[in-house]
Amino acid sequence: MNKLIVALCLTFVFTGSAVAQQLGLKLKSQAALIMDAQQERILFHKNPDKVMPIASITKLMTAIVVLDAQLPLDEEIFIEAADVDILKNTRSRLRVGTSLTREEMLRLALMSSENRAAATLGRNYPGGTRAFVDAMNRKAFELGMGSSYFVDSTGLNRANVSTARDLAKLVSAAYDYEIIREFSTTAAHAVEFEDDDHSVQFVNSNNLVRSTNWEIGVSKTGFLSEAGRCLVMQANITGKPIIIVLLDSLGKNTRLGDANRIKKWMEIGFARKVRG
Prior knowledge:
By secondary structure, the chain is an alpha+beta fold. Helix content is about 40%, strand content about 25%. A hairpin with a 4-residue loop joins strand 1 and strand 2. Helix 2 packs across helix 5, helix 2 runs parallel beside helix 6 and helix 3 crosses helix 4. The two termini are about 35 Å apart.
């Protein structure tokens, strides 16, 4: 009986600590997770296991699968009619017939969330798009992302789903790739189109990479009407590598507001608790 009472008391203490730790941080995103990447310790969570559409966060997995296949990055690949989005009718500045290196397509997919670039990366995988999607799901299984499922390389299909907990694993894995770190945090990049001798400036879909207040190692945004506005990042905060996952944020700037609230919480509130 005494052992049972002690066990119940310990459970209450640990649960109470977790609840107390989350006081003072109110996020508008429907699901969120903050993790100390170094210690793999979750500092905050909100609906971490809710399965949700993830929109263009998908492109982090797309990049991992492309790089794992060790396909030549200097090979030129072409935008074809099959790469045009007929599901959501999103726009693109990559016209059908445009040729760029696989490296440039990867950069645009990660940095500015270019859907046609992501589509052609999947289509130019050995075995085509279907084989690419199979590789995405195998990689998810390998990473322990048991609640995640992929059906395309762009994230335009709402059937691409995951959880905040699974996406923290994806961000952690993505950070191991130097190219993903570089391309996902590039603020802007001009692409030269040799066929008609002009260049187009692409910008990062995450405004925070241009802020001097942030030190971001990996970044990816996402948006679908079914998914809301999403954001995942690895960033150094209070000298620690922190993984942030924000899903289904209402309003155009809510995910950025939530990210800044997390940063402030870490720097002022949570840091003070740790010191205490």
